[in-house]
TrEMBL record:
Native species: Pseudosulfitobacter pseudonitzschiae
GO terms, molecular function: 2-amino-4-hydroxy-6-hydroxymethyldihydropteridine diphosphokinase activity; ATP binding; kinase activity
Domain 7,8-dihydro-6-hydroxymethylpterin-pyrophosphokinase positions: 9-159
Name used for this protein in its record: 2-amino-4-hydroxy-6-hydroxymethyldihydropteridine pyrophosphokinase
Taxonomic path: Bacteria, Pseudomonadati, Pseudomonadota, Alphaproteobacteria, Rhodobacterales
Alphabetized InterPro entries for the sequence: Hppk (IPR000550), Hppk_sf (IPR035907)
Length: 188
């Protein structure tokens, strides 16, 4: 197995955990990621961001990481889910409040499971997104291009990463967002 780089993860928290505040919870998650085999190459600053969707809970602390990891995408997502559970995350409500959220955004230029499935999830209407959960890993994250709370921190750690389907860099995707959405993502 080869050491994979350009693993991009979005992190967030809007509830206390046994580790403490959302910021302390994210720092604990970073330690757990490295214990699981990830090597953090770069971490963005923490940002205050509105809860998504609006009204689903308190505002978030969000950030992004760039890692290297000697593992498959499936093993990486399993490790992320295990770390979330260790930090008290319960998967009760889609897009609900959480002690920690570790989202695998991309692994290099891989499109998983295939371009057709990726396109279906990317084009899914919001009402269906709120109800349906993929039964397999979809990479890159099919809605990353819509989310300032992902793209603003991600631009700090991987500004030149190129989306393998759209051909846009993280900075291009971030800059294509409505300026009002970008302005909601405030450095702490």
């Amino acid at each position: 197995m080869q050491f994979r780089s350009d693993i991009l993860i979005a992190v967030g928290s809007n509830q206390r955990s046994f580790a403490g505040t959302p910021e302390e919870t994210l720092k604990t998650a970073y330690v757990q990621l490295e214990k699981a085999g990830g090597v953090i190459r770069n971490a963005s600053p923490f940002y205050a961001t509105p809860c998504f969707p609006a009204g689903a809970g308190p505002d978030y602390v969000n950030a992004a990481l760039s890692l290297k990891w000697n593992s498959t995408p499936g093993d990486i997502i399993s490790a992320l889910h295990r770390i979330e559970a260790e930090l008290g995350r319960e998967r009760v409500q889609r897009w609900g409040q959480r002690t920690v959220d570790l989202d695998l955004i991309a692994v290099g230029d891989q499109v998983l499971p295939d371009r057709e499935t990726y396109a279906r999830w990317r084009e899914l209407p919001l009402a269906q997104q709120m109800k349906e959960t993929p039964d397999q890993l979809i990479l890159p994250h099919p809605r990353m291009h819509e989310r300032a709370f992902v793209l603003v921190p991600l631009a700090d750690v991987a500004p030149d990463w190129v989306h393998p389907v759209t051909g846009q860099t993280v900075v291009q995707m971030r800059d294509a967002l409505d300026p009002a959405l970008r302005a909601e993502v405030v450095p702490l």
